[in-house]
Design brief:
By secondary structure, the protein is α+β, with helices and mostly antiparallel strands. Helix content is 29%, strand content 40%. Strands 1, 2, 3, 4, 5, 6, 7, 8, 9, 10, 11 and 12 form a twelve-stranded mixed sheet that branches.
């Protein structure tokens, strides 16, 4: 009987050891980088307002070429999300933007805070309240088998296509509330974030301000 109890204790010890190792491996795999492409239909009204700016920027160059550049920059942007366990930082991609984006958005999933560091101060806000309605509708987006979810965010209806994963929270900007990977997020006014790349890298660290 005593030997049996010792045997059970040894088995229990190895089970705990396995669970600890598995948990540690999961934590390490939760670091990485996601790339989102943001697209929006630029209105004619907006472009008309930019004509004066284009004329001032021209300096002998074609105003129409400047207008095309303005339209291109405002209709498509590349963003990067770095994530590490319960922390993420979202900003315009440095390579695409040509410099470091100072208007970063940090998410702290432990305290459920959105953090906006600015030049003079650091703003902290509670996660936006969103009651996601997860539907039965699914669709294939690239390699992802995504499910549709709908919620009200900042006074507008948004649609997310996501892949559920209890160990990951990958989403653009501050659109929280879904466990998993948001592959596509569509805003009411036609703007859209699309996940174009996802890579895991345990060397990536996110330092909250």
């Amino acid at each position: 009987m005593k030997a049996q109890k010792i045997g059970l204790k040894i088995k229990f010890f190895f089970v705990l050891l396995f669970l600890f190792a598995f948990s540690t491996a999961c934590d390490e795999s939760q670091s990485g980088k996601a790339t989102y492409t943001f697209t929006i239909q630029v209105s004619d009204e907006f472009m008309q307002k930019q004509r004066e700016t284009a004329e001032a920027m021209a300096g002998g160059k074609s105003v129409e070429d400047i207008m095309k550049m303005i339209k291109s920059v405002n209709s498509k942007r590349i963003y990067t999300l770095f994530f590490q366990e319960n922390k993420t930082v979202f900003s315009m991609d440095t390579e695409w933007y040509g410099q470091e984006d100072t208007n970063k958005t940090y998410l702290n999933y432990r305290t459920k805070e959105v953090i906006y560091p600015r030049e003079s101060e650091i703003s902290r806000e509670a996660f936006p309240k969103a009651n996601w309605e997860i539907t039965d509708e699914t669709k294939k987006i690239e390699k992802w088998n995504a499910r549709k979810a709908i919620a009200e965010f900042d006074g507008q209806t948004i649609t997310a296509w996501f892949v559920k994963d209890d160990n990951l929270r990958i989403t653009p900007k501050n659109y929280t509330g879904l466990d998993g990977i948001v592959v596509e997020l569509i805003l009411e006014k036609g703007a859209k974030y699309t996940l174009t790349n996802l890579e895991f890298d345990k060397s990536i660290k996110v330092d909250l301000p």
